[in-house]
Design a protein that fits this description.
With 370 residues, the protein is of the alpha+beta class. The chain has 7 helices and 22 strands.
Length: 370
């Protein structure tokens, strides 16, 4: 019995010690190094080899012009010919160039139809230059397009799943130019928070200083503002290794009290620190049902001047439900949710009540309606 009690006590202590760390996250998940960013690339190209599911050249003149230009560059003169192929589709190719990418590396690309093609399945992207915002070509994409959706149709029925006019080419682009930025060229090491907050910035700086003070004997971080933390790496450590060390440190981020409402889907997200002053809430639903039941009026048998007419007949029924009065209020999220559940509301009712509570000044949080 004593061993069982000791085991239970150890389990409780373990759970109690692990509970606070449940909200701890790594610094790399909430912050990034200033100047280390992705770059967007875009290009225009042709997908060939489609099985009759490409663009209609009459409806997509840019596809015909692109096809003629490509064939001209290969020594095939088709300027005077009227092309009727349905195996070609004009596409826009997009990709994301990671920071510090080097020449010869490969990246994934996305391919999206630009004309009236029905599907890109089975197609191959012809070599397409990918340009950055400065107009320079940084990569060239080419390869077989992988499409997850499909579309099939007959004379009386059609079946479609997913989006067959969008595909991807894994490792489909080859980087041809190095980016001008280098890790050694960064003028200063600055961490930027994804969700700016003064308290989170202070906690991140304190966590870094505790680590560097214990390991190197110096403080290496100082909060600049609610978004940025300045870093000064110790003299006897490589900068890359220093960044890797501090990215693994755990902190507990602080978030503002906020309620996010999406009226289109009926989604309500309530933050942990949302508080509601004690208020009395009642909510009722008014349902109006209109039923049309037309009747056919026919003339009497053997009538000489009678005709059949339709007589409208409408039934209107109004019903009001709900109306239960409940007190909602509390200092934590659990109390607030328990009070809303006591009324037995649907998402639309919760949205209406939260909006009314905010208007009454009892909702101590930011209300974001999307």
């Amino acid at each position: 019995m004593r061993r069982l009690l000791l085991a239970l006590a150890a389990a409780v202590a373990l759970v109690a010690g692990a509970a606070p760390s449940a909200a701890m996250v790594r610094i790399k998940d909430i912050a990034s190094l200033q100047g280390v960013r992705d770059n967007q690339l875009v290009g225009y190209g042709l997908v060939i080899g489609l099985q009759g599911s490409g663009d209609t050249l009459r409806n997509s003149p840019f596809t015909e012009q692109s096809l003629q230009s490509m064939l001209d560059s290969m020594g095939v003169n088709v300027r005077d010919a009227r092309l009727r192929t349905r195996n070609v589709a004009a596409v826009v190719v997009t990709a994301t160039l990671p920071p510090f990418s080097s020449q010869g590396a490969r990246i994934d690309v996305s391919v999206s139809s630009l004309g009236d093609a029905a599907s890109l399945a089975g197609g191959t992207l012809v070599a397409t230059p990918l340009m950055g915002a400065d107009g320079a070509v940084y990569a060239v994409a080419q390869g077989a397009v992988a499409v997850s959706g499909f579309s099939e149709s007959g004379q009386a029925e059609s079946l479609r799943q997913g989006i067959p006019t969008v595909g991807r080419i894994p490792n489909g682009a080859l980087i041809e130019r190095n980016l001008p930025d280098r890790f050694s060229n960064i003028p200063a090491l600055v961490l930027e928070l994804s969700n700016p907050d003064f308290r989170t910035a202070v906690r991140v700086a304190d966590a870094i200083n505790r680590h560097t003070k214990a390991t190197y004997g110096v403080n290496a971080a100082k909060e600049r503002d609610y978004r940025s933390i300045d870093l000064t790496p110790p003299a006897r450590i490589n900068v890359t290794r220093f960044i890797a060390e501090i990215e693994g440190l755990l902190v507990q981020p602080d978030t503002p009290a906020r309620v996010v409402i999406d009226e289109r889907t009926g989604t309500v997200v309530i933050g942990r620190d949302v508080q509601v002053s004690t208020v009395a809430v009642t909510h009722g639903n008014l349902t109006v049902r209109i039923t049309e039941a037309p009747e056919v009026s026919q003339p009497q048998p053997f009538a000489l001047n009678g005709e059949t007419t339709v007589t409208p007949r409408t039934f209107i029924d109004a019903e009001q439900s709900g109306g239960q009065l409940a007190i909602v209020g509390g200092t934590d999220l659990q109390t607030l949710v328990r009070g809303l559940n006591r009324i037995g509301l649907k998402p639309t009712g919760i949205i209406a009540i939260l909006t009314a509570i905010k208007t009454a000044g009892a909702l101590q949080a930011d209300l974001v309606i999307q």
